Backbone:
């Protein structure tokens, strides 16, 4: 890797690493950071693809100024208007006043709404092409992955796809930006956590758009977050397609909400039952302790999910309620669920789980367990059986 990363002869990565932000979208923890990828094409026309978050304008613009060597930027292509990618637009306009912003019909409203930009906008249609000298760009409008204005840009001559947030991941770069020069294990779980939390809700439409890319000859995938896939673009394509189809691997998540440890004992019996059925990958989590984004990620990964939760103020325990609402929001499917609802005097936990079953039309494995006060001997046995029954079906 060099200071300026080259994707091909005159295509450069000019993105930045963010290891400062605690929460992506002020919601999702970033223990490994994240990168905001932007790309510069220096042809007869100088073209910039997306920008970065506003806080990182300085190192970003410095790289661009060095590479453009006094030339102006002719086109700024906006594949996605979310401010982690559009944050430097205003400053770029100030530096390059003749620059044309390339987007689709939907981009226009966002440009006006976020930045009061109305001029020098070039509106393109789906599958339209734009010659920039030796290279030709082709645009694919891909709404709702994950905003209405999202689109992708493809360089025909290089077969490079600038895919926006699709095929992205959490995790800042440690040196190289290319898939063949890095330890992919670093990104393995972060790809799942990024997808399931950020894009997951739009899975059916993502599956449709990703499948339709099959017609394209793609030699390199360059998204807005994470590695550039030049060695194994099929790896990330396949992974994304599977995630967008809610495909799951053999394994299970046991997640429990407990105040004083009683519900935990039932959950651990269920985990033991899963192991008894031969499931090796069983992840047991305390819903109050592990951030929701990691739970959503593992629920996206594995086939079986056993939820055990106490009640609180006549409802489901709040962090478990937040998890269930997040799964409903993302339309989780193709999973086997098990429910253990506990209460002492107020009730409400199992009721809300049953509502979840109806809302998402999910498969729930028997027995459903309702336990009052501390775990009864009979319910501990039932929890073990629930784990075993779930494991047998996985
Ligand atoms: Fe986004
Ligand atoms: Fe993004």
Residues:
């Amino acid at each position: 890797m060099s200071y300026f990363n080259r994707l091909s002869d005159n295509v450069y990565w000019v993105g930045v690493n963010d290891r400062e932000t605690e929460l992506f979208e002020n919601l999702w923890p970033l223990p490994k950071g994240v990168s905001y990828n932007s790309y510069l094409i220096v042809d007869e026309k100088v073209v910039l693809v997306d920008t970065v978050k506003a806080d990182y304008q300085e190192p970003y613009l410095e790289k661009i100024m060095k590479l453009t060597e006094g030339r102006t930027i002719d086109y700024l292509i906006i594949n996605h208007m979310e401010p982690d990618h559009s944050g430097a637009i205003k400053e770029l306009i100030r530096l390059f006043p003749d620059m044309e912003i390339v987007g689709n019909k939907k981009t226009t409203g966002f440009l006006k709404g976020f930045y009061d930009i109305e001029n020098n906008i070039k509106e393109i249609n789906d599958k339209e092409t734009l010659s920039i000298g030796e290279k030709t760009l082709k645009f694919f409008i891909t709404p709702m992955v994950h905003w209405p204005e999202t689109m992708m840009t493809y360089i025909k001559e290089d077969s490079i796809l600038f895919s926006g947030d699709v095929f992205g991941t959490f995790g800042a770069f440690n040196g190289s930006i290319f898939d063949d020069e890095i330890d992919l294990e670093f990104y393995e779980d972060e790809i799942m956590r990024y997808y399931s939390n950020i894009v997951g809700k739009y899975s059916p439409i993502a599956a449709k758009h990703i499948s339709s890319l099959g017609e394209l000859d793609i030699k390199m995938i360059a998204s807005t977050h994470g590695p550039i896939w030049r060695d194994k673009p099929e790896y990330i394509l396949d992974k994304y397609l599977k995630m967008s189809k809610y495909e799951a691997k053999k394994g299970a998540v046991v997640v429990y909400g407990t105040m004083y440890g009683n519900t935990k004992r039932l959950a651990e019996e269920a985990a033991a039952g899963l192991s008894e059925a031969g499931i090796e990958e069983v992840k047991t989590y305390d819903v109050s302790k592990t951030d929701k984004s990691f739970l959503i990620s593992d629920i996206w990964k594995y086939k079986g999910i056993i939820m055990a939760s106490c009640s609180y103020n006549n409802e489901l325990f709040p962090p478990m309620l937040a998890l269930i609402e997040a799964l409903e929001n993302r339309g989780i499917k193709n999973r086997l669920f098990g429910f253990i609802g506990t209460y002492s005097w107020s009730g409400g936990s199992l009721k809300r789980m049953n509502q979840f079953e109806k809302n998402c039309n999910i498969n729930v494995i028997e027995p459903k367990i309702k336990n009052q006060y501390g775990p009864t001997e009979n319910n501990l046995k039932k929890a073990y059986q629930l784990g075993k029954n779930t494991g047998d079906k996985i």
The chain has two domains: 5-244, 254-393. The chain has a mean pLDDT of 97. The domain at 5-244 is CATH 3.60.15.10 (Metallo-beta-lactamase; Chain A). The chain has twelve helices and 25 strands.
